[in-house]
């Protein structure tokens, strides 16, 4: 089974370019941001969590990191203001529904563009619909399974990439057991709901064909 550190290691290596500012929002333990400090020596890393004592603790944890390499921010991720277009924002380890709210508010509250890496569980269809409506495009995606939790990871931008697939179908691989199991689980979920919702019916039909 993939260890927490391994998931964060994968996340820290996703960016394919340099940024001047990188936000680790909903940072909790701060381990992702800590890895980003090492991975991106030219970027300013912004740690953010909504819980004050979490952010206070980070002060101690980062004792060996020069102050000019990072900022600590106790605020709702929805209220983050980015200072330039050369910014990447990570939103990881939360549910898809909360990610939808945070990304919508970030887009509405900022005049600068920014790129995003989301690593979320549940409500992937709704999340992708929302990102498509906001005109985000997909740079790359992955499926990470960590402590029994399945996370879709998507790296997105408004200025580059390709259309975000609606049903996460780019993640399917008929030769990979992990991915087949992910899509089977999703298919069963939509099958259960297909009696009550047209969209669930459509997604169920799509996955049935994909897995056949
Ligand atoms: C499960 S932890 C995720 C930690 C880390 N990002 C990871 O992927 O391992 C979720 C964190 O999100 C924080 N959080 C929840 N809602 C938030 C919001 N609106 N703005 C900022 N932080 C938030 C919580 O306080 C908690 O520390």
Give the CATH superfamily of the largest domain.
Vaccinia Virus protein VP39
Specify the structural class.
alpha/beta
Count of the domains: 2
Backbone CA Rg: 18 Å
Arithmetic mean pLDDT: 96
What is the overall silhouette?
globular
| Main sheet: strand order | 3-2-1-4-5-7-6
CATH topology of the largest domain: Rossmann fold
Q: Helix amount, in percent?
A: 25-40%
Tell me which ligands are bound: S-adenosylmethionine
Give a short synopsis of this structure.
With 212 residues, this protein is α/β, with parallel strands linked by helices. Helix content is 39%, strand content 24%. Helix 1 (4-12) crosses helix 2 (31-39), helix 4 (96-109) packs parallel to helix 5 and helix 6 packs antiparallel against helix 7 (198-211).
Note down, in words, how this protein is organized.
With 212 residues, this protein is of the alpha/beta class. It has two domains: 4-165, Vaccinia Virus protein VP39 (Rossmann fold); 172-212, no CATH class. Helices cover 39% and strands 24% of the residues. The protein is built from seven helices and seven strands; from the N terminus they run αβαβαββαβαββαα. The chain has helices spanning 4-12, 31-39, 52-61, 96-109, 124-133, 177-193, 198-211; strands at 21-25, 44-49, 70-74, 87-95, 115-121, 137-146, 149-157. Strands 3-2-1-4-5-7-6 form a seven-stranded mixed beta sheet, sandwiched between helices. Helix 4 (96-109) links the parallel strand 4 (87-95) and strand 5. Helix 1 (4-12) crosses helix 2 (31-39) and helix 4 packs parallel to helix 5. The longest helix has 17 residues, at 177-193. The chain is globular and about 55 Å long. The two termini are 27 Å apart. The relative contact order is 0.12. The model has no long low-confidence stretch (mean pLDDT 96). The protein binds S-adenosylmethionine. Residues 25-28, 32, 48-51, 54, 76-78, 92-94, 102 line the site of S-adenosylmethionine (SAM).
């Amino acid at each position: 089974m993939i260890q927490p550190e391994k998931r964060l290691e994968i996340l820290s290596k996703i960016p394919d370019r340099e940024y001047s500012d990188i936000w680790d929002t909903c940072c909790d333990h701060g381990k992702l941001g800590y890895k980003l400090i090492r991975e991106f020596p030219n970027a300013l890393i912004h740690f953010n969590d909504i819980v004050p004592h979490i952010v206070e603790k980070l002060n101690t944890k980062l004792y060996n990191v020069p102050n000019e390499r990072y900022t600590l921010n106790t605020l709702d991720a929805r209220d983050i203001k980015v200072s330039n277009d050369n910014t990447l924002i990570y939103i990881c380890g939360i549910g898809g529904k909360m990610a939808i709210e945070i990304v919508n508010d970030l887009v509405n509250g900022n005049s600068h563009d920014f790129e995003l890496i989301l690593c979320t569980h549940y409500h992937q269809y709704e999340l992708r619909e929302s990102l498509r409506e906001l005109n985000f495009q997909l740079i790359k995606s992955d499926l990470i399974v960590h402590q029994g939790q399945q996370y879709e990871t998507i790296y997105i931008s408004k200025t580059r990439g390709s259309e975000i697939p609606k049903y996460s179908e780019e993640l399917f691989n008929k030769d990979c057991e992990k991915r087949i199991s992910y899509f089977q689980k999703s298919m069963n979920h939509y099958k259960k709901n297909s009696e009550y919702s047209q969209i669930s019916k459509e997604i169920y039909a799509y996955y049935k064909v994909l897995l056949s």
